[in-house]
C-alpha cells in the first residue's frame, strides 16, 4: 500500500517535532506547518493524504479556517489536535466537517487510530461518491437512448399504424395497435419528464395565455371519456379571459392529468366541477370530483413518483401528479389537494397572473 502522507499543522514547535518523530517511526511521510497560510502552501507542494490541525494558530488564518480550506481545495480528511473543548469552539470546528477531534495531551496510539480511521472512512466515501457519479452517468446514457432511439422507433410503428387504423372500428386490431403505441409514447414522455424534473432542467417557455382557453382545450381532449361515463361537467369560470404567465403546453399537460384522474375516479353519472378563482397576483384552478376521495394518510404520498393508492385499481404509472407538481412549482405556483373519503377530491393549483 502507498505510504500515507500527513500534514501536521501545529505552531508549538515541541509538539510538532514530537509528532513528526513518532509518526515517521510509524511509517508515515510527515511535513509540518506552523500557520494557516504555511499549511496551505505546504499542502500544495506536499499533496498530503490527511491533515492534523491545531485550532489556535498565529496569523490571519486560524486552524478552523485552514482546515476548511484544506478540505475544500485538496479533498483530504481533517483531524483536529487541540487543547480546546468548549462548546463554541466545537461548534465552529465542526463547520470544516472534521473526521476526528483529539484533545491534548494525547497518546500516540490515539493519533494513530484516528489517522487510520479517518483515512479509511475518507477512502470509503470517495469510493461511494465515484459509484454515485457513475450511476448518474449511466442513467443519463440510458435516458439518451430512451429519448432518441426508442421514441423514434415507436414513431416508425405509430405513423403507419395510424394510416392502417383510419376508418377502422374502435375495436379493430389496427386501432388497438395505435392505442398501445400511443400509451407507450406517453409513458416514455412521462419518464423523460421525471428525469428532467429530478435534474432540475425541465424547460418551460412562458407567455401570457388565457386561462379559459387552457381549460377548453383540456375539456375538448377528454370529451369522449366524459361522455362515455355520463359525467356532468360544471364550469364556474367568472372571467375565462384572465391570462396567466405560463408554458401553455405544460399547463395543458397538468390539466389533462388532473381532469383525467377526476374522470378515472368519478363513478358514472358523477359530477366534475372546474373552477377559476382570481387573486391580485395569482389565478387558482380547481378540479373537483365526486369520486371515492383520498384517505388523510395517503395525502402526503400523492405527489410522490410512482405512488398509487393500494386501495385503487392500478390505472397508470403513478407519475402524473409528480410531474404536475414539478411543472407547477417550476412556474412559481403551488399544487395541493383537499379530499374527504366518500365525498370526493378537489385538486387545486395556482399560477402567476400575466
Ligand atoms: N381525483 C382523484 N381521486 C382519487 N384518487 C386520486 C385522484 N387523483 C389521483 N388519485 C390517486 O393518486 C394516484 C396517483 O395519481 P397520478 O400521479 O396521476 O398517477 P396515475 O394517474 O398514473 O395513477 C392515483 O393512482 C390515485 O390513487
Ligand atoms: Mg394520472
Model description:
The protein has 354 residues and is of the alpha/beta class. The chain has 9 helices and 12 strands. It has a 5-stranded parallel beta sheet with strand order 2-1-3-4-5, with helices on both faces. A 5-stranded mixed beta sheet has the order 7-9-10-12-11. Strand 3, helix 3 (63-74) and strand 4 form a beta-alpha-beta unit. Helix 5 packs antiparallel against helix 6 and helix 8 packs antiparallel against helix 9. The longest helix is centred in the middle third of the chain and has 58 residues, at 108-165. The structure holds adenosine-5'-diphosphate (ADP) and magnesium ion. The site of adenosine-5'-diphosphate has 22 residues, from helix 8 and helix 9.
User: Could you tell me which ligands this complex binds, including any ions or cofactors?
Assistant: adenosine-5'-diphosphate, magnesium ion
Radius of gyration: 31 Å
In helices, the fraction of residues equals: 40-55%
Binned strand content: 15-25%
Reading the helices and strands in chain order gives EHEHEHEHEHHEHEEHEEHEE
Query: Can you tell me the overall shape?
Result: elongated
Strand order of the largest sheet: 2-1-3-4-5
Terminal residue distance: 65 Å
Mean pLDDT: 94
Sheet having the most strands: 5 strands, parallel
Name the poorly predicted regions.
none
How many individual helices?
9
Label the structural class. alpha/beta
Kindly state the number of beta strands.
12
Amino acid at each position: 500500500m502507498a505510504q500515507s502522507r500527513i500534514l501536521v499543522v501545529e505552531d508549538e514547535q515541541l509538539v510538532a517535532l514530537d509528532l513528526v518523530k513518532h509518526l515517521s517511526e510509524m511509517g508515515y511521510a510527515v511535513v509540518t506547518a506552523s500557520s494557516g497560510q504555511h499549511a496551505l502552501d505546504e499542502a500544495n507542494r506536499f499533496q498530503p493524504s490527511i491533515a492534523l490541525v491545531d485550532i489556535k494558530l498565529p496569523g490571519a488564518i486560524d486552524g478552523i479556517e485552514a482546515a476548511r480550506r484544506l478540505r475544500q481545495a485538496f479533498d483530504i480528511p481533517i483531524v483536529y489536535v487541540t487543547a480546546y473543548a468548549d462548546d463554541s469552539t466545537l461548534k465552529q470546528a465542526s463547520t470544516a466537517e472534521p473526521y476526528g477531534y483529539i484533545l491534548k495531551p494525547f497518546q500516540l496510539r490515539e493519533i494513530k487510530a484516528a489517522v487510520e480511521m479517518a483515512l479509511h472512512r475518507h477512502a470509503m466515501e470517495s469510493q461511494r461518491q465515484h459509484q454515485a457519479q457513475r450511476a448518474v452517468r449511466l442513467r443519463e446514457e440510458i435516458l439518451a437512448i430512451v429519448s432518441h432511439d426508442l421514441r423514434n422507433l415507436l414513431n416508425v410503428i405509430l405513423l403507419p399504424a395510424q394510416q392502417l387504423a383510419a376508418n377502422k372500428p374502435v375495436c379493430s386490431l389496427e386501432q388497438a395497435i395505435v392505442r398501445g403505441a400511443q400509451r407507450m409514447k406517453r409513458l416514455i414522455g412521462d419518464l423523460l419528464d421525471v428525469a428532467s424534473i429530478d435534474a432540475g432542467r425541465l424547460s418551460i417557455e412562458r407567455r401570457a395565455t388565457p386561462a379559459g382557453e387552457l381549460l377548453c382545450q383540456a375539456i375538448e381532449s377528454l370529451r369522449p371519456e366524459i361522455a362515455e361515463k355520463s359525467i356532468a361537467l360544471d364550469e364556474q369560470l367568472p372571467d375565462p379571459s384572465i391570462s396567466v404567465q405560463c408554458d401553455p403546453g405544460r399547463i395543458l399537460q397538468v390539466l389533462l392529468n388532473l381532469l383525467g384522474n377526476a374522470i378515472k375516479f368519478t363513478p358514472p353519472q358523477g359530477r366534475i366541477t372546474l373552477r377559476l378563482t382570481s387573486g391580485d397576483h395569482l389565478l387558482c384552478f380547481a378540479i373537483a370530483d365526486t369520486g371515492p376521495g383520498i384517505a388523510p394518510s395517503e395525502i402526503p404520498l400523492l405527489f410522490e413518483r410512482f405512488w398509487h393508492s393500494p386501495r385503487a385499481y392500478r390505472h397508470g404509472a403513478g407519475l402524473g401528479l409528480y410531474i404536475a407538481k414539478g411543472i407547477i412549482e417550476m412556474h412559481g405556483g403551488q399544487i395541493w389537494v383537499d379530499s374527504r373519503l366518500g365525498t370526493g377530491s378537489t385538486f387545486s393549483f395556482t399560477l402567476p397572473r400575466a
